[in-house]
Design a protein that fits this description.
Blueprint (H helix, E strand, L loop, with lengths): L9 H12 L5 H52 L41 E3 L8 E4 L15 E2 L2
Antiparallel strand pairs: 1-2, 2-3
InterPro entries: Bac_GSPG_pilin, N_methyl_site, Pilin-like, T2SS_protein-GspG_C, Type2_sec_GspG
Protein name: Type II secretion system core protein G
Subcellular location: Cell inner membrane
């Protein structure tokens, strides 16, 4: 049996299928995919950023504990905690009146809180020998989540 010219051969059918497959996506298909990605991002992004905020609070707590340990070592050597005026810088640079200072008590400079603000230090403190705290993301410490005061007491 001979193939007539009006009937396509198997070879021609394969070429036509490949031509349809290689033409790409339609605008509607691309829009559907973009909507699906947008919906997924809308569901995942808030949970992700909530976790980042919790991480910053945990980092601040860990830094306050570390600074508290350095302050305790300073007190063991000098006999008193640094004054409010001397501040946390007394942990890295010797104050003039600290005769038994054997620091630095921190390996690097005094860190800032996770929101790039200096930690607040007061000695004597209202809650103990010293108060060491961060006012959180908003800088006021009057909220919840990341906007809460993170303190040593």
């Amino acid at each position: 049996m001979q193939e007539s010219e009006s009937e396509p051969s198997w070879h021609d059918v394969g070429l036509a299928a490949r031509a349809r497959a290689s033409r790409g996506f339609t605008l509607l298909e691309l829009l559907v995919v973009m909507v699906i990605i947008g919906l997924l991002a809308g569901l995942v992004a808030p949970r992700y950023f909530e976790q980042v905020g919790k991480s910053n609070v945990k980092i601040a707590r860990a830094q306050i504990v570390s600074l508290g340990q350095a302050l305790d070592q300073y007190r063991l050597d000098v006999g008193v905690y640094p004054t409010t005026e001397e501040g946390l810088e007394a942990l890295v640079a010797k104050p003039q009146n600290a005769t038994h200072w054997s620091g630095p008590y921190l390996q690097k400079a005094v860190p800032e809180d996770p929101w790039d603000r200096p930690y607040q230090y007061r000695s004597p403190g209202d809650h103990g020998d010293y108060d060491l705290y961060s006012l959180g993301k908003n800088g006021r410490g009057d909220g919840s989540g990341e906007n809460v005061t993170i303190s040593s007491w």
